[in-house]
Design a protein that fits this description.
Structural class: mainly beta
Strand content: over 45%
Low-confidence stretches: 1-13
Helix content: under 10%
Shape: globular
Oligomer: single chain
Strand order of the largest sheet: 5-4-1-30
Mean pLDDT: 93
Length: about 375
């Protein structure tokens, strides 16, 4: 399917809305948030925020707000159209699912983001959204137990759900593993789609055929891992265990076979019972891997861990750096690899760090932005 392109004038308008700043001097990001109180967060935000980063100093500035989305806790920005697609992370006790997803695009004349459309997510508490690498399919992971398939249409709107996959329950011992809890999908090797299911403690290997999700294989995790997010680098898959605070390194063996476990490494230098891992991202150079650690109490560790990747893809813990806030739910690395921005959900702040080009180590820039309950960062 051919995706409709945002015109050059439209992109120029988008830039104008960001005060016509030189792209070499500034970068821009969309920040997903929680807007209302939920069982795990006291959401206070107004919607999706557009934030500017000074590429030289690391200063962060609020530039715009997309008002209206409810709990836009995870975002995807289309690399060509720059449209923002977001989950609305909502759930309702009972049989009726109320989770939704939506798209927003910049108006050509004003650059203001407007709603394209909104559709049901196919499950409750949708917590992750992504486009597949080789098509215009969108995959949504809903924490309450479903993985749903959508398509971006020629007019940039989202289709209704083409398929909804509901995994069977695989009994686990951990109290947070009492049912399927899909937390992320990503494109994997050989055209596969990998699904991290925290509740079932497994990575599913799927494909898309005729607008349907097809299960082809799976990789069980070590007991108590709770896979949350993943990074794919060639035939290596780095799985972040939310419950175990470990990174599990796997080698792809083909879609029908379980992945081969080659390393398990703790994200912290010491074992911490009151810490869960949250986000994991690969540096653009491919030399370093970073992950965030969320302390479940104010006195617990709140940090970013830096892992060095050796020639065989194995990891070595280099350092952990305090995030300057509470619950670092997400972070993002600038496309040029020079800065890391962290979102501290429960302390309502974002901080920027310099990334050393030789070692990957983080140094605070000294700049901080107050922003209500930030949960996701995506660069345009």
């Amino acid at each position: 399917m051919k995706i409709a392109q945002l015109s050059l004038f439209g992109l120029a308008a988008l830039t104008m809305s960001f005060y016509s700043c030189d792209s070499d001097s500034y970068s821009y990001m969309a920040v997903g948030t929680y807007t209302q109180k939920e069982s795990h967060v006291d959401g206070k935000a107004e919607g999706i925020y557009i934030v500017q980063l000074n590429n030289k100093t690391g200063e962060l500035s609020m530039k715009d707000t997309i008002q209206g989305p409810i709990n836009p806790s995870y975002l995807y920005i289309h690399p060509e159209t720059k449209c923002i697609y977001t989950v609305h992370e909502r759930a309702l006790a009972g049989n009726e699912a109320i989770g939704t997803i939506a798209g927003y695009k910049a108006e050509q004349e004003s650059g203001e983001f407007k709603l394209i459309n909104k559709v049901l997510a196919g499950g409750d508490a949708p917590c992750h959204i992504i486009k597949t690498d080789d098509s215009e399919h969108i995959i949504v992971s809903s924490y309450m137990g479903t993985v749903s398939l959508f398509e971006i249409k020629d007019d940039l709107s989202l289709s209704t759900a083409l398929d909804i996959h509901t995994p069977d329950t695989i009994t686990q011992d951990h109290p947070r593993q009492d049912a399927p809890h899909p937390h992320m999908a990503t494109s994997g090797p050989d055209g596969s789609i990998l699904i991290a299911d925290l509740g079932n403690n497994v990575i599913y290997h799927m494909t898309i055929k005729s607008d349907q999700l097809q299960l082809k294989g799976s990789t069980p995790m070590s007991t108590g891992t709770g896979p949350r997010h993943m990074v794919v680098d060639g035939d290596l898959i780095y799985v972040l265990g939310e419950l175990s605070t470990t990174i599990e390194v796997y080698q792809w063996q083909g879609i029908a076979k379980p992945m081969k476990a080659i390393q398990s490494i703790n994200t912290l230098s010491t074992t911490e019972d009151l810490v869960n891992s949250a986000a994991i991202h690969l540096h653009p150079s491919g030399k370093w891997l970073y992950c965030s650690n969320r302390g479940l109490q104010k006195s617990a560790i709140q940090s970013i861990s830096l892992m060095k990747i050796d020639k065989d893809g194995l990891l070595e813990l280099v350092e952990t750096v305090d995030t300057g806030g509470l619950i670092p739910r997400d972070f993002a690395i600038t496309p040029d690899g020079d800065h890391l921005i962290v979102a501290n959900q429960n302390s309502d702040n974002m901080l920027s760090y310099y990334i050393d080009p030789e070692s990957g180590r983080l140094t605070p820039t000294g700049h901080e932005l107050q922003i209500p309950t930030p949960a996701c960062i995506k660069f345009f």
